[in-house]
């Protein structure tokens, strides 16, 4: 670990004092067109984080301005399926809370289960079903006062988006068609392999959380085609411009009120 790199990054964070943090999921790199970086650091140089292993996730923490608002931006994330424990998967949420971030905007790539969720559409997460590793059906929402970890106040700020339930599975394989039928019966609208643990921890730490799923494909068995990661990356780009506008608006709305 490079202690000096981390010290320089921490100083930039303290100077900018971001009130919003954004985690960019698979293939969503282009969302940050309006972000101007002040400082950044690879996950490997951040205490508590490790380098990511997934193609399309570059694993850097950056701080800078989104239009004119200070933001902590996480390019890529760490997943449970990479073999990391919950403490590592939720490390960025902990860092954001420590820096005084008030709202965490989590984005992900997801498979669409609900018929309205065409590839390229966006879904605001109303609640989730945790099916990740040993925590399956054992959400840690107790830390959120047994409510959904997603902020209703932030959901109200994105009235243009469909809202739905996100099922978080361990992965890394996509689901079988039978699993998707089971998830459909359980009330899931979209399926992915991230976000749930981060959202629970962030809410427990007192941040407001909004999760936005970028639907990159119809979930397994809902079309005749086979799923692959290159399809995920191509379709993610379709939603990037809309997602960037929405994030920009939320970040601007979270600025300090004028004294
Ligand atoms: N399943 C799980 N995770 C995903 C999918 C999917 O269909 N698409 C993108 N991430």
Task: Characterize the biggest β-sheet.
Answer: 5 strands, mixed, barrel
The oligomeric state is: single chain
In whole angstroms, how far apart are the ends? 40 Å
Calculate Rg over CA atoms: 17 Å
Describe the structure.
The chain is of the alpha/beta class. The chain is 28% helix and 27% strand. It is built from seven helices and nine strands; from the N terminus they run αββββααββαβαβαβα. It has a five-stranded mixed beta barrel. Helix 4 links the parallel strand 6 and strand 7. The longest helix has 25 residues. The model has no long low-confidence stretch (mean pLDDT 89). The site of hypoxanthine has 13 residues, from strand 5, strand 8 and strand 9.
Write the SSE topology.
Elements: H1 3-16, E1 20-24, E2 35-42, E3 60-66, E4 69-75, H2 86-89, H3 91-98, E5 103-112, E6 122-131, H4 152-155, E7 162-169, H5 177-185, E8 190-192, H6 196-204, E9 208-218, H7 229-253
Parallel strand pairs: 1-4, 1-5, 5-9, 6-7, 7-8
Antiparallel strand pairs: 2-3, 3-4, 5-8, 6-9
Helix pairs in contact: 3-6
Hypoxanthine (HPA) is lined by residues 109-111, 174-175, 191-193, 216-217, 219, 227, 232.
